[in-house]
Design a protein that fits this description.
By secondary structure, the chain is an alpha/beta fold. Helix content is 62%, strand content 9%. The radius of gyration is 21 Å and the shape is globular.
């Protein structure tokens, strides 16, 4: 499980982080002192669970959840609070909070709640897998080729922890478009052409297509950034992790990966800016998909 902690009390963040690590409950991939500073890293790193304080300056816990949900974040929330009323509890559950952790923080309570959250997470994933499997049953042979390409791409994206989001759907459509083209190309066409090819499949007029192309680029950039951060987290914890060893140097500038790993290891307050090369990512993904497809 991948956790992100948002709390204006540094001592609370440290306690929660230590409980997670000592209890072998997962890894903490980031933390922030308030909701405002937590929004972007949560959206880009896409943690499984966000632990956040109810009362924080600038943006409280409830408002943070609302902002994250409006941006499409689908992870789970656990609220941390010292003062809890029935009204607050009711509003929090309506916004999607799974559990409450009471302050002062108790190790036994935190471990118990996080274990329950993990069980729920695994159960939801199992049900999703079953639903996806059933949805594929009965596809006719005309869709067999498209299905195999999609499965290859989704398998690769899954290894990098970016399956399921809108950006990953856009990436799949782009690779399917390239694979279905009459000529196999060594170099990708301009990204604008690829975005237009995906956007044109929807019911858009000319103006809407332009807007959708910009939206597609933003979704893909965010998804690739999530993959970058996932690989950085994997490499920081275990440099020999097979997914890290395989994908990090192929899909990204490894110097960029290494720079961010050092930043995490040294616990710097400000993270270096990430340079994302969308075309390189799609180029490598296309060539790898083509190779696996030809191998059968």
């Amino acid at each position: 499980m991948r956790y992100f902690i948002v709390d204006d009390d540094k001592a609370s963040r440290t306690m929660l982080k230590n409980i997670i690590i000592d209890g072998d409950l997962g890894m903490v991939i980031g933390e922030a002192e308030n909701g405002v500073k937590g929004l972007l890293p949560i959206l880009t790193r896409n943690p499984d669970v966000v632990l956040l304080d109810l009362l924080m300056p600038e943006l409280d816990g409830i408002e943070t959840i609302e902002r994250l949900r409006s941006e499409g974040f689908e992870g789970q929330f656990i609220m941390i609070s010292q003062v809890v009323t029935k009204e607050i509890v009711g509003e929090a559950y309506e916004k999607g909070v799974e559990y409450f952790i009471h302050k002062p923080i108790n190790r036994v309570e935190v471990q118990s709640i996080l274990k329950k959250t993990t069980e729920q997470f695994l159960l939801k994933n199992s049900l999703r897998t079953i639903q996806e499997t059933l949805a594929h049953i009965g596809l006719d042979t005309l869709n067999a080729r498209e299905k195999s390409v999609k499965e290859i791409v989704m398998s690769i994206l899954n290894d990098m922890g970016i399956i399921g989001g809108a950006g990953s759907d856009d990436i799949v459509l782009i690779i399917e478009h390239l694979m279905n083209s009459s000529e196999r190309m060594a170099q990708l066409p301009p990204l604008k052409e690829l975005y237009e090819a995906v956007a044109s499949k929807g019911e858009f007029n000319q103006v809407d297509v332009k807007k959708e192309c910009k939206a597609i680029e933003q979704r893909i950039r965010r998804t690739i950034l999530t993959a970058f951060n996932n690989l950085v987290s994997l490499g920081t914890i275990d440099y020999t992790n097979p997914e890290f060893e395989y994908y990090a140097p192929r899909y990204f500038d490894f110097q960029e990966i290494r720079k961010h790993m050092v930043s995490i290891q040294e616990e710097r307050d400000e993270e270096p800016k990430v340079k994302i090369n969308i075309k390189k990512f799609l180029q490598v993904l296309y060539l790898e998909t083509l190779e696996k497809y030809q191998q059968g």
